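cron nightly-structures :: item 1 of 1
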Amino acid sequence: MQQLKERILREGRVLPGNIIKVDGFLNHRVDTALMRDLADEFAKYFDVKNITMVLTAEASGIALATICAERYGVPMVFAKKAKSDNIEGGLYQSDIFSYTYKKKVTLLVSQDWITKDDKVLIIDDFMAKGYAMRGLIDIVNKAGAQLAGIAAAAYENGNADYIATAKRWWDDMAGKKLFVTGGVGAVHFDEKFGHDYYLPTDAYLETCAAVGVGFFSQAMNQLTGDAKYMDEFERALYNNVLAGVAASGRQYTYQNPLNTDRSERWEWHPCPCCPPMFLKIVSATPEFIYARDDRTVYVNLFIGSDADIALGDMQVHVRQQTRYPVDGKVVLTLTPEKAARFTVKVRIPGWARGEENPFGLYVSESPAAPVLSVNGTPVEIRLDKGYALLDRVWNPADRIVLELPVAPRLVRAHKAARELDGMATIAAGPLVYCIEQADNADYARLRLDTAGSMELGYRSDLMDGTPVITGTAIDGKGAKSTFTAIPYYAFGNRGNGGYRVWLPTR
């Protein structure tokens, strides 16, 4: 059903544990009109005139099953997942594994409400691994009833061809078309990609497109467990996405070129799509800080936070303290309910390992090596798909300290990116910097002094606190000069003057 597919793609999110969340229309807030349309769609495939009941499992399947039952003129019965005082008499039951809650549960149906004379249509919201469906089928069989059909609003498809296609699309984007700020969309006309390695400094780079890069990359990380995808999520978030909203919060940008003589921010735009997309990714980001599987905690983003993470039948509290990306020190305090062995995987960003881009689209040299310690003792960084792997018995209040080298570095583009030949940009940690007219009167004629030093500092008086990089440059007369660079996301907050991300080096 195309309508449902579009709603899932537009509003759905993938949570840690590969759980699809569509609580805007199905799992929490229910769009009854859409549910009626789904009921009518199911009726095309099943003999609903001859069924005697609709069966589902609590809780999220109840809304859809109820509307289907009303549509077909039959009762709806839902299997409970816990025995309550109002259940009397005999029960049909089936033990299943809950994909959503990652634990075993028991489905229960009173023998009063399903008999051997029933013709049952099973309906649920999502089918991930089919555990709930198998449990409901088991109950139908135990009752001696007839199974008329099984329907779900959506199911996860692990087809290898689809996965390979998604990887190929992402690789092509990240390896040939992704701008250093995490933006995409080189061409203003039709707001589209350009040809391979076409990375002009005046590119369109719509804010919404960078949001798309972020969600695409996070979804690929959930699918593969590879940290490179979160590296690019982080690049897009801290640069092109954050640039989309002014420091005041009252203006925004629609397009985000890398070099321009006039920055533009608007209170309104004829196509106001970017502000809600900005809010969508920023509100979703807390759910992307960590991920998990049955025995592993993944630390994907370095953002101060507290989280309770379920590992099997145990909760692990994780507290993260950091000033990243201004400072590279990250402190993680782990408090499991009891001493237990499990794995913690901490993302080591590519830029911190001398791998600016996984395909060499951009290159740089890390100013130093990252350092990792557990309870004050340095440990070797053993990488697994870009994560430092820590497997041990963890005790309450164990501390992991990661120190990332956020000193300034020069970034250059692949030789095939002809528009950037002989140019470089400045980065520190995940942040890309620009030289803005407000700080550099001769900004349009400055050349970077690649042999000169650069220093990272912090200006508490600038836009409520902003990291800055100072260094040496060559001015328009060939004399040595100094420059001040601010994070790209901060451009255009002090008037509509110009700025430069890419600067000539010769």
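cron nightly-structures :: done
Helices lie at 2-11, 32-43, 62-72, 131-143, 160-176, 207-224, 228-243, 274-284.
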